[in-house]
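[recover] target loaded
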């Protein structure tokens, strides 16, 4: 292995820059509502223990595998796989790992940007006091009105895509790194402010019990499958983002340590989000199991009837925007770097083309909530179909192929060099997990996601 090989796009200035970036990629809209919700519905503290075990068995091993591929190949996921195929003596068909990851990130961002646009719209609405003393009916009408207006959705989708591309166009150190060094600390500060505010609601102990009191009677086979699935999806695995971020990782940085730190930070954000949201929900007698509606319909009612609710509602939705923004820049990065490396484009021009293509595809999601809401393929709207294809098929399949390639095809010496573990036993434990246990677990997640089991 040539230790002097570097990505043509630059590299992170150090370990913490990478940790911030990868954590930003992993932390998204799902952390803010989904993890607290599924934790409460599936046994509280007992579910958290199962989830952490799944992170250890599925999430961290695949993250380590994806990072080591990126750092060893030092290119876009597609070019990385091409380089490593020669090293592994593997068939060129394995390039599909890179292509599928890049395509998945592109597809996900096209609809993720639309949903993030909702959060942007609510930042303005909260800040203007639009929800003060609003009835549940009024809040529902406002949300329904947003979805029914393609003009509003397109505006916020366009603004969010512009924000994303302005960061990515500036490159690794001046764009991605500077953005995440601001966004991730800001996200944690906002979370802590929200938790502090929630503690004053009078229902904080109820929220703590809801999230952390172990109730093993609620643990079911379905709950375990949910924990396994979320452990995989929450770390942004299988979509090329972690692989391309790994390509910018300095040679001396420990992949093992950073992977554990990223998984820990991602879980911490999700738990803090629960401690910020559920005291407000319980204090106002609202339904904690409202799913996505919890954010855009239930919480605005609570904020509208609390002292200082407009300010803290504004901060909450700003938090959502920051979480979405840090994820979005990682989703488009593989496509941008591919255009730079393979089409000889400048980074700015590549950003324009990749951003424009993503924006155009996002219009399909915008219309799926209004004009195209009755148009369905396989019983799903345009948005639902993209969501199902990426989350249930492309990501688990990509993660499975990464695990198989690293554990079965890439020479052990290659992974040993990249991981550089001090303990030979630790390496064998990781290799055993990613060779046998992790692929089996991902197959189970995949089969559950497509409805074969569960």
């Amino acid at each position: 292995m040539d230790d002097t090989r570097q990505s043509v796009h630059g590299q992170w200035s150090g370990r913490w820059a990478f940790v911030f970036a990868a954590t930003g990629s992993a932390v998204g809209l799902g952390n803010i509502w989904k993890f607290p919700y599924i934790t409460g519905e599936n046994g509280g503290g007992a579910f958290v223990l199962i989830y952490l075990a799944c992170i250890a068995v599925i999430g961290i091993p695949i993250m380590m595998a994806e990072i080591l591929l990126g750092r060893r190949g030092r290119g876009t996921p597609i070019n990385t796989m091409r380089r490593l195929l020669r090293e592994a003596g593997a068939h060129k068909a394995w390039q599909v790992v890179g292509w599928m990851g890049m395509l998945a990130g592109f597809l996900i961002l096209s609809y993720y940007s639309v949903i993030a646009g909702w959060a942007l719209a609510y930042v303005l609405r909260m800040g203007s006091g639009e929800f003060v003393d609003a009835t549940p009916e009024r809040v529902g009408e406002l949300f329904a009105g947003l979805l029914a207006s393609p003009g509003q959705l397109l505006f916020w989708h366009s603004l969010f895509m512009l924000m994303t591309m302005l960061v990515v166009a500036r490159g690794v150190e001046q764009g991605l790194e500077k953005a995440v060094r601001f966004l991730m600390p800001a996200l944690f500060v906002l979370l802590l402010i929200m938790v502090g505010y929630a503690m004053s609601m009078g229902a904080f102990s109820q929220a703590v019990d809801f999230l952390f009191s172990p109730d093993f009677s609620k643990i079911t086979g379905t709950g375990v499958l949910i924990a396994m699935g979320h452990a995989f999806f929450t770390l942004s695995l299988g979509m090329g983002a972690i692989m391309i971020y790994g390509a910018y990782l300095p040679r001396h940085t420990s992949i093992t340590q950073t992977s554990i730190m990223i998984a820990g930070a991602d879980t911490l954000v999700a738990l803090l989000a629960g401690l910020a949201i559920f005291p407000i929900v319980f204090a106002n007698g609202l339904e904690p199991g409202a799913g996505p509606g919890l954010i855009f319909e239930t919480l605005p009612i609570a904020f509208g009837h609390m002292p200082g609710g407009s300010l803290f509602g504004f901060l909450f939705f700003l938090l959502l925007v920051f979480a979405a923004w840090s994820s979005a820049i990682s989703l488009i990065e593989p496509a941008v770097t591919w255009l730079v490396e393979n089409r000889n484009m400048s980074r700015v021009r590549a950003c324009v083309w990749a951003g424009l293509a993503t924006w155009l595809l996002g219009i399909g999601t915008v219309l799926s909530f209004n004009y195209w809401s009755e148009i369905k393929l396989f019983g799903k709207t345009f948005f639902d179909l993209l969501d199902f294809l990426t989350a249930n098929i492309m990501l688990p399949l990509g993660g499975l192929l990464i695990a198989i390639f690293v554990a079965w095809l890439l020479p052990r010496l290659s992974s040993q060099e990249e991981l550089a573990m001090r303990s030979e036993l630790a390496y064998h434990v990781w290799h055993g997990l990613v060779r046998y246990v992790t692929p089996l677990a991902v197959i189970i997640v995949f089969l559950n996601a497509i409805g074969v089991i569960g």
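[recover] notes: Residues 309-342 form the longest helix (34 residues).
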